[in-house]
């Protein structure tokens, strides 16, 4: 069974009546407004506030396929990747949730039906084992009465194995797992009864594989160690797609599934050496895993840096470069490999193809940068091979001079049973930070530039906050406050920034930034540590001066037409199809708009025409488009639409088309609907189960589309030697003539 079929079966099972869960897109890998987590490491992260009773949604059941990364913080699997069958930096979690609706009984029934039902996974119950928390007698009884699992296949384990929490704080509760015996994949193979000790031994050896974890969310873990009851008992299911794919495709390792094999095959093609499924194939497995992680992290706005999430991304990238180096590769490997990731995962996560060029460009720049120093770093490590341990100063030198993250040094040293003084490294690193802070203060006379390395961020104006002025203007006299130049790519952070960075479906602005003797054509705008950086090609060494920043205004105006039209079409869909319609994704570009929404089936031509007419009537009414800053609770109370795949702070921006639409939105819009001029649908199709997709044009693009259709109609009429208004009648006559012939 293909992994794409597994995803779809899972979603279809839980969305179908009577289970009737709402399909919710995956949340971002960067948890919004949650400082307790480095990355989204489980499916429930985007619903944390719902479990805690701090946020309400218009559904009490949800199903999703969630992107997860475990490469930093409490959950960190980085060092095991490539050497085990199951560890990954990035993985997908199939999840179903109950927010105070059903609890243990229904959750157990749903899990057992999907895992054993012939219409779903169809696994033999005689291959399955169950774990519960040792104090959860209720769950044990329900497995017996609801699923018919005999007591000798149910094992009570302690907090370490069967109590789950997302981090040091947050929602938590006892859990119950389903494990499958993978010692034999032969048809009809059965598993004998196991004692507790043997069960634990086989589980730890990976021969009994956990494929399902039911978390019964009952508590909220506080920072002081205390636990309080959640407002309502809830359910959080996590089922690893990679593991289930391995079971259903009867392969020994996740890396042998169709999720990884196309990536490994592409890596083999790039490197030119065969793949070994044994220990010798670890470098290829690392490359396949890390290419997935790098692509999805970059798509979700993480940028390589020396701190926080960006540092984890850089560690993953450089670990992959080192393994490609071991395979004899001396050129970027992950950059072309991200294209294969796009081919495998793009149909599920549209942000990957949308940002394919950005992903490839940033990955290539990072690889090229590390390839410049890796040979020297490996040579230096070779010189230290005879020492019993690598000192903190030596480890810091490897980091500072050759760009080796400390864990990469530890990994290479560990391969030859050599210790690393990590505490000494941290002390040396802190000394360097203090020196850097002092040097920046001393260097203010030369603009704060001082001596810099290629590819490093250069801070020009310390403690200056960037101001976003793009709502008010598309042109600004400003100054760069930081820049980074890597090869022929230049990134600038401007003090007064009129350029919009892609967010909420709206694409980034383009334009130009001109200074004294230099000019940068802005090709993209990226988020870097909470600021917007304009990016473009710049071949000469950059010397910053005050500059004029100019957004491509014609392009911005077309984007604004499409964004406001998106709000109008959302309102029209809800008015004509029903209030069940909810936005499920969008793309707002200069040449078109795309809008995904929840709906049970195709829209008739008649309904589509009615919706198009409704949108155009609101355009021709030339209604004002007002924006205002409001308290979140006040905005929701006023009826503003909030999309719960997004996260909002206490203050929000509300876009109001009076009497038509009221939505929370951070994008840019036309001042009046009349400036949209014209709205035309071009496509309507299905995007996923229960999700429809429409595409449309506005303004000049809609006008050109109408002219093109008129031209085609005239061309067809000319071929049939008639007038356009008589074309249908002429075709009918020809069809009748052909029928008679």
Structural class: alpha+beta
Annotation field: number of helices:
21
Largest sheet: 9 strands, mixed
Regions with pLDDT < 50 over 5+ consecutive residues? 439-454
Mean pLDDT comes to 88
Distance between the termini: 50 Å
Rg value: 29 Å
User: What percent of the residues sit in helical stretches (DSSP H or I)?
Assistant: 25-40%
What overall geometry do the principal axes of the alpha carbons give?
globular
Percentage of β-strand residues: 15-25%
Give the strand tally: 31
Q: Gist?
A:
With 741 residues, the protein is α+β, with helices and mostly antiparallel strands. It is 37% helix and 24% strand.
Strands, helices and their partners?
Blueprint: H1 3-15, E1 22-23, H2 48-51, E2 61-69, E3 71-72, E4 75-76, E5 90-98, H3 104-116, E6 128-133, H4 137-147, E7 154-157, H5 159-162, E8 163-165, E9 170-181, H6 196-204, E10 208-221, E11 227-240, H7 241-248, H8 261-271, H9 282-299, H10 308-326, H11 334-345, H12 351-354, H13 356-383, E12 389-390, H14 392-402, H15 406-414, E13 419-420, H16 422-442, E14 458-459, E15 467-468, E16 475-478, E17 480-486, E18 489-494, E19 496-497, E20 511-515, E21 518-522, E22 524-528, E23 531-537, E24 547-551, H17 553-576, E25 583-588, E26 593-598, H18 605-620, E27 626-631, H19 632-637, E28 651-657, E29 661-664, E30 679-688, E31 691-698, H20 699-719, H21 727-740
Parallel strand pairs: 1-2, 6-7, 12-13, 15-19
Antiparallel strand pairs: 2-5, 3-4, 5-11, 6-9, 8-9, 9-10, 10-11, 14-17, 16-24, 17-18, 18-23, 20-21, 20-24, 22-23, 25-26, 26-31, 27-28, 28-29, 30-31
Helix pairs in contact: 3-4, 8-9, 8-11, 9-10, 9-11, 9-13, 10-13, 11-13, 14-16, 17-18
């Amino acid at each position: 069974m293909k992994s794409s079929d597994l995803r779809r079966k899972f979603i279809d099972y839980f969305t179908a009546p009577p289970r009737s869960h709402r399909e919710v897109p995956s949340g971002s890998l960067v948890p919004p407004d949650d400082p307790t987590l480095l990355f989204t490491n489980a499916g429930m992260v985007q619903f944390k506030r719902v479990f805690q009773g701090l946020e309400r949604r218009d559904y009490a059941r949800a199903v999703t396929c969630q992107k997860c990364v475990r490469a930093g913080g409490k959950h960190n699997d980085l060092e095991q990747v490539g050497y085990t069958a199951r560890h990954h930096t990035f993985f997908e979690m199939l999840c179903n949730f109950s927010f105070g609706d059903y609890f243990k009984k229904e959750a157990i029934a749903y899990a057992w039906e999907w895992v054993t039902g012939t219409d779903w996974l169809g696994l033999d119950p005689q291959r399955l084992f169950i774990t519960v928390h040792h104090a959860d007698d209720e769950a044990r009884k329900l497995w017996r009465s609801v699923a018919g699992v005999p007591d000798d296949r149910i094992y009570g384990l302690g907090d370490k194995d069967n109590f789950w929490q997302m981090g040091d704080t947050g929602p938590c509760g006892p859990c119950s797992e389903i494990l499958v015996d993978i010692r034999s994949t032969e048809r009809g193979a059965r598993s004998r009864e196991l004692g507790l000790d043997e069960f634990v031994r086989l589980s730890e050896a990976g021969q009994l594989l956990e494929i399902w974890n039911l978390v019964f969310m009952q508590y909220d873990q506080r920072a002081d160690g205390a636990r309080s009851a959640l407002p309502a008992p809830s359910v959080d299911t996590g089922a690893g797609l990679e593991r289930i794919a391995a079971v259903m495709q009867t392969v020994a390792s996740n890396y042998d599934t169709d999720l990884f094999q196309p990536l490994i095959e592409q890596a083999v093609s790039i490197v030119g050496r065969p793949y070994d499924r044994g220990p010798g194939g670890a470098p290829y497995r690392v490359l396949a895993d890390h290419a997935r992680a790098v692509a999805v992290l970059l798509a979700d706005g993480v940028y390589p840096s020396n701190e926080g999430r960006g540092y984890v991304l850089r560690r993953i990238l450089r670990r992959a470069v080192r393994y490609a180096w071991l395979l004899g590769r001396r050129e970027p490997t992950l950059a072309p490999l991200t294209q294969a990731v796009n081919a495998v995962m793009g149909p599920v996560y549209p942000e990957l193809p949308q940002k394919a060029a950005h992903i490839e460009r940033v990955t290539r720049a990072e690889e090229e940068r590390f390839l410049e120093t890796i040979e020297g770093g490996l040579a230096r490590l070779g010189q230290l091979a005879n020492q019993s341990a690598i000192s903190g100063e030596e480890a810091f030198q490897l980091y500072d001079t050759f760009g080796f993250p400390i864990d990469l040094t530890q990994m290479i040293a560990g391969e030859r049973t050599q210790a690393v003084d990590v505490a000494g490294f941290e002390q040396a690193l802190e000394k360097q930070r203090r020196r850097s802070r002092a040097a920046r203060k001393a260097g203010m006379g030369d603009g704060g530039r001082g001596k810099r390395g290629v590819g490093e961020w250069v801070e020009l104006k310390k403690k200056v906050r960037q101001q976003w002025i793009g709502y008010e203007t598309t042109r600004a006299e400003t100054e760069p406050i930081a820049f980074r130049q890597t090869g022929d790519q230049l990134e600038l952070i401007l003090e007064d920034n009129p350029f919009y960075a892609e967010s909420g479906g709206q694409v980034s602005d383009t334009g130009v930034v001109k200074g004294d003797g230099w000019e940068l054509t802005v090709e993209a705008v990226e988020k870097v540590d909470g600021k917007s950086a304009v990016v473009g090609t710049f071949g000469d060494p950059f010397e910053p001066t005050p500059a004029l920043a100019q957004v491509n205004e014609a392009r911005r105006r077309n984007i604004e037409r499409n964004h406001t039209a998106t709000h109008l079409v959302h309102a029209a869909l809800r008015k004509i199809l029903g209030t069940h319609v909810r936005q499920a994704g969008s793309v707002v570009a200069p040449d078109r708009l795309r809008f995904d929404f929840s709906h049970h089936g195709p829209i008739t031509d008649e309904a589509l025409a009615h919706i198009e007419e409704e949108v155009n009537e609101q355009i021709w009414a030339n209604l004002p488009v007002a924006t205002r800053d409001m308290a979140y609770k006040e905005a929701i109370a006023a009826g503003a639409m909030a999309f719960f795949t997004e996260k909002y702070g206490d203050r929000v921006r509300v876009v109001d088309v009076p009497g038509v639409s009221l939505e929370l939105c951070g994008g840019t819009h036309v001042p009046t609907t009349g400036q949209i001029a014209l709205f035309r649908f071009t496509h309507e199709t299905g995007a996923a189960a229960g999700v429809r997709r429409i595409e449309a044009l506005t303004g000049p693009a809609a006008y050109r589309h109408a002219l093109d259709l008129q031209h085609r109609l005239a061309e067809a009429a000319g071929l049939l030697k008639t007038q356009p208004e008589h074309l249908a009648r002429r075709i009918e006559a020809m069809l009748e003539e052909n029928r008679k012939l």
